[in-house]
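Board notes (copied after class):
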Amino acid sequence: MKIAITGGAGYIGSAVAEKLSFLPEVEEVRVFDNLSTGNTDFFFNSHLNKEKIKFIEGDILETRKLPKLLKDIDVLVHLASFETSASDNASLHTLEQVNHWGTAELSFAIENSGIKRVVHLSTHEVYGFSYEGKTESSEAAPETPFAVSKLRGESQIIRLKDKLNTVVLRPGTVVGHSAVKNISGVANKMFYDALIKKRVSIHGDGKQIRPLVSLSYLISTIEFAVLGHLNSDIYNISQANISVLDMLDEVKTVLPETEFIFTNHHFSLPHISMATKFGDLLPKQEFSLKHEYEQILKYFRI
C-alpha cells in the first residue's frame, strides 16, 4: 500500500506519517507540505521510518504538482489546511482558497488517479456553538470563516463517495505531544503557557465547554480508516467535552505552581460539545487529560 499525506509535516501529519510508516502493509508514505509555518521539526524526528517516507515540498494550490503526488497512490490522507483569526481580513481569501478550492483541486486530481480511499480531516467547528452534543446527524451551522471554508472543503471530498471510499473526520480540539509542536489549540496552549511562562490567562468565566481528543486516538482513528475499516461517511472524533475550568484543574495537578489570570471573568462564552452515533464502529481508547499533559512534560528539557 502506498499512502500520500497532504500537510504531512505538521503537528498531526508528522504523527500520522510516523505511525503509518511502520505498518507492514505500507510500502511508502509520501509526505506533501508547503512548510508555510516555518516549522521544520518534522525533518528532525528520529522516530520516523525513513526507509518508507518520501518528502515532496508543495502546495495543494499548485495543481501541476498533484498528479506526481498521487501517482501510484492507494490512499490519500488530506490534512493540509489553513487557519486564521476571524478578524484577520487579509487572510480570509487564503482561507477560502486553501481549505475550499485547494481541496476542490485535489478532488479533481483524485478523479484522474487510481486512488481507492480518501481520509479527510475537517473540524468540529462546522457545527457552530451549542450546549447540546452535536452528532453526525446534526445540521452543520458554521459561525466562523474557517469553519465555513472547511465545510465547503468537505463537500468536495464527499462528492467522490460513489467512486471511492471517502471518510470525513470531524475531530474535537486535539491535545497531546507530537514531534512537531502545536500550541494553538486551547488545551495544548494552556499547558505550554503553564510550562514556559508559568502562568495561564483565561478569557471569560471558564465555564465554556470544548470537545477534546488526544492526538494518539486521532492517529489511531486515521490509521483505522486508512486500512479500510470505515465506510464512506462523516465521523465525529471526540473523547470528552470538558470546560476550561476543568482543563485548568488538570494543569494544576501536573504543574501546581502555575499562576492563573482571568480576564473578562464576568463573560459567559459559547459552548461547543460533540458526540458520535458511530461509537461501536470507531476504535476505543480511554481519555485522560492529565496523562496527555504528563506526556508533554516528559519531553520538556528546561
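Comment from the instructor: The longest strand covers residues 165-171. Residues 107 and 169 are 16 Å apart (CA to CA).
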